[in-house]
Amino acid sequence: MAVSNTTAIAIFLISFLVMILLRFPIAYAVAISGVLCLFSQGLPLSTLCQFMVKGISSFSLMAVPFFITMGVLMGSGGISDKLIALADACVGWMTGGMAMVNIVASYFFGGISGSAAADTASLGTILIPMMVEQGYDDDFSTAVTITSSCEGLLVPPSHNMVIYATSAGGVSVGALFLAGYLPGALLAGSLMVGSYIISKKRNYPKGAKFSIKNLVKQLGTSIWALAAIIIVVVGVVGGVFTATESAAIAVIYSLIVSVFIYKGLDWKGVWNVLEDCVNTLSIVMILISTSAVFGNCLTRLHVPDMAANAVWGISSNPYVIALLLNLILLVLGCIMDMAPIILIATPILLPIATSIGIDPIQLGIMIILNCGIGLLTPPVGAVLFIGSAVGKVKMERVVKATLPFYLCMIITLLLITFIPEISLFLPNVLGSK
After folding, report:
1. Is 358 exposed, middle or buried (CB count within 10 Å of its CB: 0-12, 13-18, 19+)?
2. How many CB atoms lie within 10 A of CB 232?
3. Are 249 and 238 in contact (CB under 8 A)?
4. Are 384 and 341 in contact, with CB atoms under 8 Å apart?
5. Do 353 and 329 touch, CB atoms closer than 8 A?
6. What share of the chain is helix, strand, coil (3-state, %, to 5)?
7. What count of other Cβ atoms lies within 10 Å of the Cβ of residue 226?
């Protein structure tokens, strides 16, 4: 027998929160709360299956497995050393040179992997020991690594942008790709300022003097890796390929570069990489399908409208509402992983954001950066745990060392929130919106 909407909402949200607090896997928490909601509304279980299938029956979502595969292939194909050398040639001469190298290398590598976790695991294993050997504190080295890894979430190609575009509906993936460049660069610049101040205070060393000859040499070596980004972004933005087609082409290109040019992978390694991709993809697709159930339950119960009314009840000031949206996302980031936040929060927050003049593309960048900060915060900060393990530093020390960088990231977030042009300048100029 169906119950009232108010009772169904209580069953739905309370069961979900209880399972989150009990540390259920997020996909199970989303699916079970959805089942309870459907039952409370008197709907058959077959409705659950229909929602799940509909959630993943999207052509644009086909880009997700390709982008994941491209990132893993390039990340395992021996490009990390080359990107670090390129970053060193660019900024290694500065005070706190290795910290700057870490941040710039993350910008380069993030544009290939699209994953903060992959960035931390790949670059951290090389850069953290290298920084410690040169006299940097281990907790500072780890903090720089994990915070700079979030640049990769903003710099395209990012499969999280594809997930957001699908959740938001009608948002151009190409426009999102372009929108991420300046916010990613702003985040890198903010972290570099923070690193410079700390390095100056602690008297961390400089690297070798700047050499244009070395820069050209390293650029020539790294160009094969960086070309993968050009293929994807130029192809999508220029209308040559769809996001799915460009991702598929990028996978073939990444395979050729990793196996035949950089020779970081043999064919046995390729099979191992594909196995890792299948494992990652299965998690992502289960999350997308179960989140589709969650989203449909929210819509049936009119939760987005209720949330909008509740926010407007607190304040009608657009600046206050924008801050509230960020606060909601930051809190969600502390208890949930990135993909489920995008899938669950987008249908609720998008109408509120557009009602105060926030462009859907700008909101996408805000959500992704908020989720990135969440990856660095306990108790569910996956990148925080990976950085702690890679750097062999206790998590408490890493969190303490990361506090100044949290401030840098929050400042970047506020700038992106209140200066729309940071996100929208490139999409507007190049006409990809």
Report:
1. buried
2. 29
3. no
4. no
5. no
6. 80, 0, 20
7. 16
Helices (H), 22-171: 26-40, 46-56, 63-76, 80-91, 97-113, 116-133, 138-148, 151-154, 159-168
- Work out the average pLDDT over 309-336: 86
Give the residues across from 427 on adjacent strands.
none
Q: Where are the beta strands (DSSP E) in 353-424?
A: none
Nearest one of 118, 79, 81 to 227, comparing CA atoms: 79
Domain boundaries, the chain: 1-43, 59-430
Both tokens assigned to 296: 């449909």
What does DSSP assign to residue 137? Answer: -
How far apart CA 362 and CA 424 sit, in angstroms, is 7
Highest mean pLDDT among 28-32, 34-38, 258-262, 420-424: 420-424
Residue 134 has pLDDT above 80, yes or no: yes
Q: Is the Cβ–Cβ distance between 333 and 413 less than 8 Å? A: no
Residue 432, pLDDT above cutoff 60:
no
Distance CA 38, CA 53 (A): 16
Q: Please give the pLDDT value at position 185.
A: 94
Q: Is 401 helix (H, G, I), strand (E, B) or coil?
A: helix
* CA–CA separation, 162 and 177 (whole Å): 9
Q: Residue 262 gets which letter from DSSP?
A: S
- The 8-class DSSP code of residue 394 comes to -
| CA atoms within 13 Å, Cβ hemisphere of 51 | 24
Residue 206 bridge partners (DSSP): 95
Instruction: Please give the share of the chain, as a percent, with pLDDT higher than 70.
Output: 95
H-assigned helices in 315-381: 318-335, 338-355, 360-374
CB 147 within 8 A of CB 107: no
The two tokens of residue 389 are: 């393990």
Q: Give the count of beta carbons closer than 10 Å to the beta carbon of residue 205.
A: 12
| pLDDT reported for residue 325 | 93
410 pLDDT higher than 60: yes
Tokens linked to 279: 């494992």
| Mean pLDDT, all residues of the chain | 84
Contact present, 109 and 83 (Cβ < 8 Å): yes
Element (H, E) at 303: helix 303-314
DSSP H/E element including 314: helix 303-314
Task: For the chain, give the number of residues.
Answer: 433
Q: How far is CA 158 from CA 93, 155, 170, 354, 412, in A?
A: 30, 7, 18, 23, 19
How far apart are alpha carbons 215 and 391 in whole angstroms? Answer: 29
Q: Global pTM?
A: 0.81
